[in-house]
Amino acid sequence: MSLRIHLPSGWVTFVFTDIEGSTRLAQLLGPEYRPVLREHRRLLRDTLAVTDGAELLTEGDSFFLAFPDAAKALTACLTAQRALSTHDWPNEDATPRVRMGLHTGYAEPRDGEYASPEVHRAARVAAAAHGGQVLCSASTARLADPLPSGATLLDLGLHRLRGFDDRERLFQLVAPGLERQFPRPRTADAVAHNLPTQVTSFVGRRAERAELDLLVRRHRLVTVLGAGGAGKTRLAVELASGLVEAYPDGVWFVDIATVTDPGLVAFAIAAVLGLRPEPGRPMLDTLVEYTAARRMLVVLDTCDAQPAACAEVISRLLAGGGGVRVLATSRESFGLPGEVVWRIPPLSVDPQPGRAESDAVALLLDRTAAARGGRPPDWAEVGDLHRVVQRLDGLPLAIELAAARLRVLSAGQLAARLDDVLGALDAGRVDPTPPVEHGWTGNQQDTVDLVAAAAGGTPPSPAHRAVQRSAVERHLTMQATVTWSYRTLGPRASRLLRWLAVFAGPVSLSSVEWLLDDDPLDALSVLVDKSMVLAEPSPAGSTYRMLDPIRAYAARRLAEAGEEQGARDRHVAWSSYALEQAHLGPDGRPVTLSLYALDPLAGELRAALRWCATGGSARAGLRLAGGLDQWWRERGLSREARLWLFRLYGRIAETGERIPEAELAAAYHLHSLHAGADGEFAEELRFSQRAEAAARQAGDVGLLARVLAGRAAPLIDMGQFAEAERVCREVIDWAHEQEVAGDALFAVYLLAELLWRRDALDEAAELLGGARPVEAARPVERGRRSVDMLLGMVALARGDVVAAHEHLLVALRSRMSHGYHGRACDTVSAVAVRCATDHPVTAARLFGAAQATRARLRATPGIYGPYWLEQQSTLRRRIGDAAFDAAYGEGGLLGLEEAAALALSVEHPDLGEGSVRFRPSGTATPRPAGPTRWELGRCEWA
């Protein structure tokens, strides 16, 4: 290549290249080295001749070049490496392995050369590379656009270059035709070790650490012996991490479990130390020569995988130099001279003097908290945890596995299963090989295989290469990622994964058992261990859930397996069962309905409704929608409820499924209520009429009473108050005649509201007094305390603040306790009216909070709307616009729970200043007109 006269300036990319091990190659080839060197130079120059690179210096086997463009510099290096690797060299040992380094910086040439620190940085980048490797700095990576076709840059992290105080982020050029696997870069890192990063804390073993530390300091070969799972690896790594400063040439960890051939043990160690094979020389000789003059600690883990080969390598290392020490872990000793064998004891299960917990219990507590997302075990589980470690005899791996099981089971459940220790700990493990003790994985095998192949050792088998290729490809798509795990599942675990896709959220162990009608623990353990199902333990028992991408994958597999109909129908049946159980107490008898019990089921019921509307039974869907009747409205979801009902009607028309008239009447009635809550009054009236027609066709008197009781609602919404009152009276009288008065309770509430509206307070109070026992006898309605709410409104209209306070707070407390948020919003507004006289600022805050909640729930104020506006206007005139707006705005920032707490904290009128309770003796107390608060129906404090 002719030397370019014009050198690039500004942002310049400098390239350094040389042959790795050139001295050794020259000694090996003798007179044949010069032709190889000339051919190497020719290939590089031929490659660079078509680029903009300027050759500044060629000395021996080194090149120094400058490029005006970072992308062209990388392209030139890639082309050169491919030319070198495909050239027909005299023999394999004669192949020069060229390392290349690039760095881009701002530089100006002077007198045909560059005097810039950027040149030195480029040289250090090249010095960090290995033969066949192309490294570049972060600045080159940033400016290299576009990259060569098919090429990428692999981020190798931050490294300290020799002679520079800062750290440089290095990137490796990866492209077809280039090697990918190399030892770590040859940089001057501050800490020389490769000890595995510990993702969990080291617990206990204080005495053992001290004893082993003393042995390692005194002896050159210490072998830690113990059974599988005794904690050998973890203790060795923990000890070695504290000895890094004592070994200036590093502490190096090598996992022999990854070595599949005895001849590759030396290659595995060499790869960790950053050594490459030298042409014509055994790797063990290179290794011994490198370590002879150095002071280092080599930690050889799981040596029982290759005991004879390890013994040979250790013997050669110790004989080659006095600065090398070896800490080995194994299940059997080597029998080498000078070897000190130290057997690791199990963790203590009894507390040591002065300590609250034993090492075994402390480990289980720590790992259980980690397995449960950082949440420590509940105090109620501590006794069961002690039982667990006692049964496991302090074996660390068993304790780790027990903690893993506690992702699936509560401590009590696990303790009860420890009669079969192996069955409890290994439940669901399909891999017959023991787990790696330290719990870490690495990529050392790839490096060892490739180094061995380059040195003439055993190359990777086609099966091994296929596994490596599959391991890379599984990250290309989410489906490939999940498939990678799915293919490792046995039949029971894969079926469970598919069937769990029908659940929308966390489910209990009993729910999974109900779904499968079988004990799922074995298969569920497999899924949790493989992170395909997440377990969330609690003292009450664990729950299980799948991430959405995995659920979608499993649902697809469910359909492909032809199991979707059965699984989803079973889930619908479970949803109906769960809905029924929410209405029952532990004794199986009906309890006051709490909508909070329905909140956790909402996702599951929606999933069940979706199937009913698309592939299942619309009749079952109508039953589910009916079970959520009040929940939809109280959560501001009336529109969603209407949409589900419309979809179910469509499913009926599509399939022709026969629905009994009574069930249609119930669905139409609920639809009417939802439409009214959503402000769709025409739709409300239409479905109310449909419900009446279907109920009359069904011939169910109680059902007809419930439907007719709701006929007044659309009339009220449309402002036809007189007609609504007439309908209510007729329905109530008819229900009494038919002896189904309880089913007409809704008409009683509506009539009371209408009477309150036209100030017929005495009649309203009498009507409500008779309704109280009826309401108390109906579990699905008594939690709302509608009688108390209405009595409170009557008391407000009479000016009886004491009665209003008592009734409204009873209603509010019950409504909040049972999850009736929409109705609680009205009660908060009523309490605001009660506070307007003696707590005006609080009243304004409550008005603001109620309105904000009403807006979030998309709820209409209904018949009370004009009253709330009138009371707010009166309050505004009393305290002034500025004060009202400020307090109203503050209330708007409160959540419903905070607003309810504020309302419940309002002082009882009898305790306030000026209360009749504190009037002087003999002072007459005026009695409000009409019945007293006790005549309005006995107020029950809740």
UniProtKB/TrEMBL annotation:
One of its GO terms (molecular function) is adenylate cyclase activity. Gene3D superfamilies: Nucleotide cyclase, P-loop containing nucleotide triphosphate hydrolases, Tetratricopeptide repeat domain. Residues 914-933 are annotated as: Disordered. PROSITE patterns: GUANYLATE_CYCLASE_2. Residues 13-126 form the Guanylate cyclase domain. GO terms for biological process: cyclic nucleotide biosynthetic process; intracellular signal transduction. Pfam families: Guanylate_cyc, HTH_77. CDD domains: CHD (cd07302). This is Predicted ATPase.
